[in-house]
Description:
The chain has 4 domains: 2-126, Rossmann fold; 156-318, Dihydrodipicolinate Reductase, domain 2; 343-532, Rossmann fold (3-Layer(aba) Sandwich); 539-708, Phosphoglycerate kinase, N-terminal domain (Rossmann fold), CATH 3.40.50.1260. It has 22 helices and 33 strands. The strands form 6 sheets. It has an 8-stranded mixed β-sheet, covered by helices on one side. β26, α17 and β27 form a beta-alpha-beta unit. α15 (534-547) crosses α21 (712-724). The longest helix has 18 residues, at 320-337. It is globular, with a radius of gyration of 31 Å. The relative contact order is 0.07.
Amino acid sequence: MITIGINGFGRIGKCIFLQLLNHPHIQVGAINAPNISITELEDYLLYDSTHHYSKEFTLKIVSPNEFTLITNNGDSRNIHLFSNKDAKQLPWSSANASCEYIIDATGNYLTTTKCEDHLAKYVIMSAPAKDTTPTYIYGANHDKYAGENIVSGSSCTTNCLAPLLRLLNDTYTIVDSNFTTIHATTATQHTVDILGKSARTNRSILNNIIPHTTGASSSITSVLPEMMGKINGTSVRVPVANCSLLDLNVELADKQVTLKDIEKLIRGHALFDVVYQVNTKNLVSGDFITTMTPTILDMKASIDMGKGKFKLMLWYDNEWSYSAQLIRLVQSMTAYNMMTVKPAHYIKNMDMLNKAVVARFDFNVPCVAGQVSDDFRIKSAIPTINTILSKGPKYLVLTSHFGRPAANANVDNSKFSLKFIIPFLEKYLQKPVIFLKDGISEETINTIVSHSNTHSYSASMQGPLIFLLENLRFYKEETEYETMSRAEIAESPIIMMYRQLGDIFISDAFGCVHRKHMSICDMADSNKPYGYGHLIKREIEALELLTKNKSGKKILGIIGGNKLKDKLPLIDSLKLIPNANIFITGGLAKQYTVKPDDTNISVMRDGYGNVDTIQASTYMPDIMNQPGFNCYDIGPNSYNTLLDLIREADIIFWNGSLGIIEDKRYNIGSNNLVKQLIKECGKKIIIGGGETASLFNDKPDMPHIYLSTGGGALLDFVQTQILTGQNIPGIEIFTTTMH
Length: 739
C-alpha cells in the first residue's frame, strides 16, 4: 500500500482525496490544509457544487489534528490534518503519517529547491515547473521516469494534449500543430471586476470570455522534445465551473489518414478507457464532469479537412481527470521505484555498438568423471549472449568461475580450466569461440587486440568476435574482493586489468549474485556502463512472485531435501508471506520441529525408508515413531495432503526433492510430483534450482514452469527480500538508475 500526503486542499487536493477513498493500492496518510479546521472537514468533503461521487463515508474526530475516515466497505484509516504554510515544518515522514509520496496541490512549490522543503522522499508538483524539474505525464512519457525524487505532473491542459500528440506523432508524424484551450474558470479568477494589474484576468468570469495565457506549449516540449517547433497554443477562460474543451489543429505527414483512422487508433490503444476515450454523441461540457479520462476525442465536433489536416476537439475534466492523472503518475513512479533492478541497466536498453563487452556468466556446471552431466547453466546464458551480439559490439568476452581452484601460481589448477566449455558454447551459438588461456593479463589484452585488428566483418558472417576468459578464480582478487578496501581495489593490478578488458560490463550469473566477488560487483565502481541480462531479469520476476506477492495470490512452498540448517531460514521466511502455506518433506520432515507459530506449515507424516539405503524399503505410517529409521521418500497419505495444497495454490515454489532421486526405490514421489506440476498449467510454478531442477532435464520447456539456475543465490535472495526488503550484493548494484 502506497501512503501519500496532500499539500493543499483546494479543488485538486480535494478531488485526489475523494478518488482515493476506496483505492486498492493508495491511501492518504496526511493532509496539509491551513485554511480549514477539522470540524469543517466532513462537510467540505461531503458536499460539492460540481462533482457527484459516493458519499458513503464518515469522519470521526480523534484530536484537533487527526481524524478517522470510515468508508462504506468498513475500512478505517487514521489521517493527520496539518496546518502549516511552512513546508519545512510538515512531518510527512513521521511514524504516524508515514507519507512517502507528496502531491503538492498548492501551485506554490514549483521548483526543485522549493519542493525540497517538504523533507519527503518523493514530491509531485501539480503545475508546470518553473525550473528544469523533470515533467512526466501518464500516457505521454511516464515510461521515461528514471527514479527522480521531485517531478512535475504539468497542467490539466498538457495532460489532455500530450498523450494524443505522442500517439499521432509516433504513428503518423506531426508536421505542425496549434491549439486553443477553452478552459473553465479557476479559483484564481473573480466573480466581479476588481482593481488589479491585469487588464483581463481582473474582470468578472461570470459574464465574460477572457483571453488568457497557457504554459502548455512549453510544457509539452519538456514532455515531448520531438514536438519542439511543432506546437503553439493559447487559452481562453469561459464562465463554466468545470470541464474544458481543447481545440487542436494538426497537420500530419501521412496525407492518407482520415478521422476514422484516428478514432480507430485511439480505440485500439492499451490506455483506451484510462487515458483516451471517444465521444460520438451530441454532448456538452456538463456531461463530462467527473470523468476520469483526460483525452476525450469528440468525433461529432472534430473536422477532417483532408490531406492530413484535422481540427480535433478534446474534452477534459480539468479537476477530476487531472487529479486521476496525478494518482496514475504516483502509481507508475511507485512501480518503477519498487523494481528490484532498473530498466536502464537491462541489456535491451543499452547501447553496445562498437563497444567492447565483458559478460559474466555462471558456467560452473556439474561434472561426473570429467564429463559435463548437466549443461543447463550454459544453455541459460545463450539468450543473453545472442542479444549482446545482435547489438553490434566490437567484441564479447565471456567470463565465469569453475570449481574452487587454489589462487596460487604454484598449484596445478589445470583440471579447473574453463577450456572444456568451448564446445558447448560453439554448439549452442553456432559461432567460433576463442579461448583466452592467459586469463587476466597483458597477454590476454594483446591477444584480444591482435584478433580484433585482423577480424573483418565483411569477410566473415560470424559477427563480433567471441572470447572465453580462463577461470576467474585463478586470481585471489575474485573471491577476496569483499574484504578489500577501496584503496586496495584501486591499487590492484588484476582488478584494473580486468576493467581494461571492456567498455561495458554485463552480469547474468544469477547463481553467483549472492557473493560480493570482483566480477559480480566491481562493475558498479568501474565508471563504465554496466547491466544485467535476460537470466537475472527472469529469475527476479519469478522469485518476486513469492517475495512481493503483490496480487495476494495463494502460495505453496514445497521444501524438501536433507539439510535442515540450509533450509530452516528459507522456511522461516516463506511462512511470513501473506496467503502462504509451507509443506515440509524429504529428509527434513524427520528433523523439523513444529513451533507454536507454524500455523501455515504442514509436515510429511508417512513415508518410505529404513536405517540406511542398503536395507529394503519399508513403509512407515508415522515417520516420527520410527526411531533409528531414515525417511527416503514421501508416503501416500502425505502425498495426498500435498495434492490438496497444490489444488488450492495459485503459485507453487518447490525447492528440495521429496526423496533420494538417484535411487529408483525412492524417487517415485519426486517423479510423481513432476508429472503433477506439468499438468497444473493454470498455475505459476517456480522450481528452485539444483537437484530439483534436474528432475525436469528431459522435459520440454513449459511456460507455466520456471526452472531457476540459483542455488545459494536463490535462497539468499528470497530470505533477504522477505525478511529485510533489501537486495543481495550482485542485485543491489542494479537498483539505481544510471544518469
